[in-house]
């Protein structure tokens, strides 16, 4: 993760979704303290809206590309016997 700027969470889709959700969290928390249920639920809608917007942006190609390659040595690791098993 340290060497990649396009890794998990470092995309416009992720940043936008998190920022919108954070604003919704702040709105919801403030209205909870003020005992205003309508404002609380409006903040909750913003939180879900952040997830929706982030998902739409990812679908538009602004998210991290899906990795299609397998992990190296995964086939060899799958065929090894567990430690301590004598055959």
Topology:
Layout: H1 12-33, H2 37-62, H3 74-79
SSE run: HHH
**Largest sheet at a glance?**
none
Q: Specify the structural class.
A: mainly alpha
Shape: elongated
Radius of gyration in whole Å, from Cα?
A: 21 Å
Distance between the ends: 40 Å
Architecture overview:
By secondary structure, the protein is mainly α. The chain has a domain at 24-62. The chain is 62% helix and 0% strand. It has helices at 12-33, 37-62, 74-79. The mean pLDDT is 81.
Give the gist of this structure.
This protein is mainly α. The chain contains three helices and no strands.
What keyword list fits this structure?
3 helices, elongated, 87 residues, mainly alpha
């Amino acid at each position: 993760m340290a060497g990649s700027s396009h890794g998990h969470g470092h995309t416009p889709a992720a940043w936008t979704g998190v920022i919108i959700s954070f604003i919704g969290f702040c709105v919801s928390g403030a209205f909870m303290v003020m005992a205003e249920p309508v404002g609380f639920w409006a903040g909750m809608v913003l939180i879900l809206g952040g997830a929706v917007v982030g998902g739409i942006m990812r679908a538009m190609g602004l998210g991290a590309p899906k990795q299609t390659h397998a992990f190296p040595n995964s086939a060899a690791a799958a065929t090894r016997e567990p430690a301590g098993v004598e055959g």
